Amino acid sequence: MKFGKLMTITFSAALFTLLTPVSGNAKTKVRSYENISNATYTVTNKNANVYSSAKLTHKKGKLGTYGSKVTGYYAAHVSKNGKASIYYKFKVGKSTGWVWHGYLKKAKPAEKFNEAVTDARFLTLINQHRTAGGLAPVTLDSNLFQKVTLVRANQIVKNFSHTDAAGNFIASDMADAAGFNAGYFNENLAYDFWQGSNQATADDIFHMYFYDDAASNWGHRDNIMSAQATRVAVASVYHDGDVYNVMNFYSSLN
């Protein structure tokens, strides 16, 4: 059941219950869960209670401690003592919580996603960091972008992986098939929620690549800072509230 359909209820008493938070003191029944598109919400009540689950049995603190904006991505339709309401699950970084949806107002994006602007920001960040590290900047390769990197950006929306089912390195195989005689070839993949700004989204993803990559043994940072890489293609796509990014670094044997 979609949230929008619930808002079409015409009985005033029923509509009132949907717009009112329920207390977490008594037993709460979760009637259904619903995936909602990732979206940025503005906090309208900093003193609102945040719960650890949609059952509303454990309070985690106040909504204001999570900042002025959060990302909502999941919904629960709950009821208690005949009173119905909707709670949203939100995230800020790695922190999550549940709060009554009426305490969150969907924020209007400051700007629309623009692939060219986002990718240009990535290239700027790549070469700024390479130059600061004493490396030559990499050159943007539009041919690689069209034949490999942009295709990969759309692929990882459904299959977020460097390899196919047989374990083959997808991007490298695509580059070989397209005639790129690569002496060095590597790939970075990442995605993050759209932050309402092309630059802010690119900056956040790049920060993950370069400064928050311990889980990957700093492999993404190593690709960015590879002395072997002379060319790069960068592609980003927007899907369902998230921005997916691919960077392909290479040098030619020719």
From TrEMBL:
Signal peptide: 1-26
Signal in keyword set: yes
Keyword Cell wall biogenesis/degradation in record: no
InterPro entries: CAP_dom, CAP_sf
SCP domain location: 123-247
Protein name: SCP domain-containing protein
SUPFAM superfamilies, alphabetized: PR-1-like
Keywords: Signal
Lineage start: Bacteria, Bacillati, Bacillota, Bacilli, Lactobacillales
Pfam families the record matches: CAP
